[in-house]
Amino acid sequence: MLFDHCAVCQSCCRIDPGYPSLEITLTANEEDKFQSICIENRCPHLGPNGCREGNNKPFGCFLYPLSFDPLTNSFMFDSECPLKPTYFAQLDDPTSEASAHLKMARKQITELKKSDQAFLLKNHSVDITHFDFVTLPKKKR
């Protein structure tokens, strides 16, 4: 499974010494549940097998290794994520985990465009200060 590697890697849930902390962007609906999540060295929700929040993690965490730019209406991918080669390869297979992840992200983004545009702008702004992104490849025809 594609995202099983995340529980081993955990690099997106940790901050190396000398780097600024990462405030996880929360949707308006998530703010009541989480109040705030700041990663100074490691996420407080990170357990030995990955995120303890599981499917209830904040959308910004679910979205990673993608980031959505609401100004260009496009997705980007963290160039340093070890899943990049596999994720990109899977995008041509509509039944793959990567395609399912992107499809679910698109669906949620569509809803957030209507209900929480401020989240989309803030999340992308935070993402680009902490990660280096590349564009997603075009589908092969």
Fold and architecture overview:
The structure is a single chain. The protein has 141 residues and is of the alpha+beta class. It has one domain. The protein is built from six helices and seven strands; from the N terminus they run αβαβββαββαααβ. It has helices spanning 4-9, 28-34, 59-63, 84-90, 97-115, 117-130; strands at 22-23, 38-39, 46-47, 50-51, 66-69, 74-78, 133-135. A three-stranded antiparallel beta sheet has the order 5-6-7. The protein starts with a helix and ends in a 6-residue tail after the last strand.
Strand content: 5-15%
Strand order of the largest sheet: 5-6-7
Shape designation: globular
How many DSSP helices? 6
Radius of gyration: 15 Å
Query: What's the helix-strand series?
Result: HEHEEEHEEHHHE
Distance between the termini: 25 Å
Q: Tell me about the biggest sheet?
A: 3 strands, antiparallel
- Give the beta-strand count: 7
- In helices, the fraction of residues equals 40-55%
Q: Structural class of the secondary structure composition?
A: alpha+beta
The number of domains is: 1
Mean pLDDT: 93
Low-confidence stretches: none
Short recap of the structure:
This protein has helices at residues 4-9, 28-34, 59-63, 84-90, 97-115, 117-130, and strands at residues 22-23, 38-39, 46-47, 50-51, 66-69, 74-78, 133-135. The protein is α+β, with helices and mostly antiparallel strands and 141 residues long.
